[in-house]
Specification:
5-stranded parallel β-sheet
């Protein structure tokens, strides 16, 4: 059973949070509310999120300050942030949003379909990265088990074929996602994230290929980052 991704919705107005939930409910993911920057930072201490929708104008800690805290933390600095704002003070205000680490900056009222489509891209990238981490962890465990069996004079039957098939499924999905991003002229941040995912997949494939008989040993496995 595939675990759902979590999406963090940050806004001090309950009616805005309710509207976001109505728009994003069709994605069938886990929507987490936060009514302030402080509450958002607290949620980020314990949970992993695919994307954050962050209101700019909030009392106390505003969206820019909240984003700055998020980007300073190693655990959360790579989470995509989409800023939502009801005001538009021109290019300088927009630039401040991107400088704070946002991958997108959307003015209210926004097109619900466009917002849902943007969020879905980052959810899909997050799920692919989760799959890759799981496959890398499985490979490490299987390699340790395989080394133990080889030391005992036994070969891990079917291990490489099984891992290769699982990796191929992730590779196929990542390739389809990258093609979709190219066709849709998606945000540069989403395209860059997809390219990073493909590089990690390539590294994992090379590690598997090197385990084939006569390949001469495996190179280092791709990192979790």
């Amino acid at each position: 059973m595939v675990q759902k991704a979590k999406i963090l919705l940050v806004d001090d107005r309950p009616e805005n949070l309710l509207a976001l939930e109505a728009i994003l409910s069709a994605l069938d993911q886990t929507l987490v509310r936060a009514s302030s920057g402080e509450e958002a930072l607290k949620a980020l201490l314990t949970d992993d999120f695919a994307v954050i929708l962050l209101d700019v104008q909030m009392p106390g800690m505003d969206g820019f300050e909240t984003a700055a805290h998020i980007k300073r933390r190693e655990r959360t600095r790579d989470i995509p942030i989409i800023f939502l704002t009801a005001i538009n003070h021109g290019p300088h205000h927009t630039f401040r949003g991107y400088a704070a680490g946002a991958v997108d900056y959307i003015s209210k009222p926004f097109d619900p379909w466009v917002l849902r489509a943007k969020v879905s891209v980052f959810v899909e990238l997050y799920m692919k990265n989760c799959q890759l981490r799981e496959q890398a962890a499985l490979l490490r465990l299987q390699l340790e088990g395989g080394q133990a069996e080889s030391a005992a004079g036994r070969e891990p039957a079917g291990l490489l074929a099984e891992l290769s098939a699982r990796l191929a499924a992730v590779e196929e999905q990542a390739e389809a996602l990258s093609k979709q991003l190219d066709d849709d002229a998606a945000d540069a941040a989403a395209v860059a994230t997809a390219a990073h995912l493909e590089r990690k997949l390539t590294g994992l494939r090379r590690a598997l290929d090197a385990l084939e008989p006569g390949a001469g040993g495996a190179p280092p496995l791709p990192s979790h980052s």
